[in-house]
Amino acid sequence: MLDSRSRRILHDLLTIPTAPFAEHRIIAYIENFVRQCRDCSLTRDDAGNVLVHFHRPGRAVARPVCITAHTDHPGFVSDAMIGRKRLRAFWRGWVPPELFVGTKVKFFVEDRWVRGQVKSIKTAVKAGRKRVDTAMIDVESPVPPRCAGMWDIPDPVEKHDRVYCRGCDDVAGCAAILTAMERLSRGTSEGEAYFLFTRAEEVGFVGAMAACRLGTIPRHCVVVNVETSSELPHAPQGAGPILRVGDKANIFNPSVVAWLQAVATQLGKRDRKFQFQRKLMDGGTCEASAFCHFGYDAAGVCVALGNYHNVDRKRNRIAPEYIHLDDWANMVKWFVALVETEQAYDGGNLELAQWLADLESTYAELLRTSVNEPA
Ligand SMILES: [Zn+2]
After folding, report:
1. Å from CA of 126 to ligand 1 middle
2. Per residue in 249-262, pLDDT tens?
């Protein structure tokens, strides 16, 4: 289902090394990419988050959408060589501590991978949870400080309509946004939208929260957070991208959920290949909760993710993450539709209001006349 251009962008993003607080290669790719896009301008806030503004005058949009994704993935950041072949590295993000020792890793140094193996870990309690804090890693050659390290998993491969890689979460989300942005930029639609690429989500949304405090996203925007979220029995891969009504911590803004649903439903009528799901994805917490907390009208869209955070639960080991390509391709179409739609976001739920009013008027008389005896 993927055209060659979409596949290129997706594979590029899934190949670039990244880790929390070491997202600069993804950011550089985005900056380069946006330079080629007509009617798109880019700014970086003081926290290093990247905001893109698509604006083609001709159609005023009172409440433009801001689609956001995070640029990091759980991983290592090199600290210092403490022996000829021994590296101390920080670990950032959540992966069960018992999966580290003995597992192969690699660090991206200048333009090549340096391989290694975890020898020992130190844990620390942060934000109420025991996490891996640092790791001692035997490496094949010296690694300078501040390099991103990831599990030793190959570059992306496609198999059975899925793509397997070092990390989909959330660079697949970033890739979907870029693909949608390029389609808008090459198309003729007028209007306005924002796209935000955040840093350091995996330690707990600190890039997104900084974006809120800095006022990076204009206050009148309706915020749609893009994620890959752990596949659930009721939210399988291949059944379409998911309108996320909430996460582990929070229920999202009902008006935004209603608007996302209305746009997706219209899209499904025009495009028979488009399908979507509407689910509570409570396998994890996402930036939409932070955006809601800071007063934005926000909700989420995600694709179901296999081997969430590289954990193969059946075999209890580190493994490639994977997503379904049709889910991802349909998510891109949905983003384009959110920008092109004529249905303005109004902060309410017009469809529900009309339906309820219709029900009331249909049955008002019957309700009244049947109070004391059957109608
Ligand atoms: Zn994520």
Report:
1. 19
2. 999 999 999 999 99
